[in-house]
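**Backbone description:**
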Amino acid sequence: MKEIETIQDFNNWIQQGVPHEAAVKGLDLKLFENNILKHNFNGCLFLGCDLNNHSAGYISCNGGMVISNRDDIIFELHRSKLYSPMELFKGFDIHNKNGYHSTYDYKIYKDYVDAGMDASNSILVTLSRRLHDHSITDALQEIISGRKVVAIMGGHSMERKNPYYLIIAKIARTLTQKGFLMVSGGGPGAMEATHVGAYFAHRSEKELEQAITEMQVRPLNAVANKEYADKDWLHRAWKVLEKYPIPKGKEKKSMSIGIPTWLYGHEPPTIFATHIAKYFANSVREDGLVTIAKHGIIFAPGSAGTTQEIFQDCTQNHYAPYNTIESVKKFISPMILFGVDHWTKKRPLWDFMQEISKDQPCAKLLYLIEDKNEVINLLESYDPDEYSFPR
C-alpha cells in the first residue's frame, strides 16, 4: 500500500484520481475538501489527518477508513513519525526542581495512571493506546530500514559515576561513528549511556568524558542506585545538552533511538536519544526492541529487565533456523554478555546460557566479554548473511 506523508504527494495522488489504495498519514487536509468530494476511497486509510467533518464522513461512506486524533485524548491516536526529545519534554522548566512534571511526557504518564494502566473498563482507552502503539511501530520500521541496528540493554539503576556507564558510552560512540544505529530501552542508567555515546559521535572523547563528569554530581543524601529519582537528574542532562549541541550537519550521523514505555513512566526517558519510540504496551516494546537489533545486542550489567531481554533474545536466536518460510529471512545475531564478574557471579547466567545453547547454531554467537574493543571488533566482523535462515 502506498504511504502518503507530504501535502505534495497527497496533491499528486488525488489529482491523478486516486489510482490506488493508500495510507494518508498525519496531514492537514482541511483545504482539500472540494477535491476529496470528487473521489471514492476504496481501501484507503486516513490516519491522524486533520479533516473537515464533511470530508471525514464522505471518505467513510465511500470506501475509506478515517482514524482521527481526538481533542479529549491527550496523546495522538496515530503518529506519522517518532517523538523527538523536545516534543516529549515540551514544557520543561530547568529552573523548577519539579520541571519534569510540566512536560508533555509526564502529562501522558499521569493520564495513563489515572485511567488505569490496564484500563480494562474502557474500550476507548485501550483501543486508543493500541492505535498509538501501532503507529509508533510503523514509524520505527520506516526509520530503521536499511540500517545496521545494535542494541545495548542494561540496568536503569546504573549511576553516571559507574565505570561501566562511561565504557558503554564509548562503545556506543565508536559504533555510531562506524555507521551502526544504536537503540536501547530509552531510560536512565545503561540505557542513557548508550545515547550519550551516540550523541557525542561527532565530538571528541575528551568532551564526552567531561560531559559525563558534569552529570555525576548528585544531591546530598541521594539514594544509591536510584539516580533517576534525583530531582535534578533531568536538569543535569539538560545542561549538558545545551552546552554540547550536536554539530550542525551531523544530526543524522549522531542519530540513536530510545524505545521506552509509559509502564515505567516514573523514570523519565533520556533526552540524548535523537528519536524516541515510546509505547504504552511494554510487551510490544520489549519484544520489538529485541527483534529489530539484527546486528547484535550488548547486555551490560543489569537486573530483572535485562535478564528478561537475554531470554527473549535467546529464544529468537534459538528458533530462527526452524520458524522460517521461503519468503522470510530470519537472523541469528550476536549476544554479548558484557561484564564478566556480573554475568558469572552477581547474576550468574553465563553457564546457563551456554548450556541451553549447546549444539545450537546460536551458540557460535554467544559471548562473554569484558574489553570494549573486543565488543566493537566482534560486531564489526559480524555478517548477518552467514547466519540467516533460510539461506
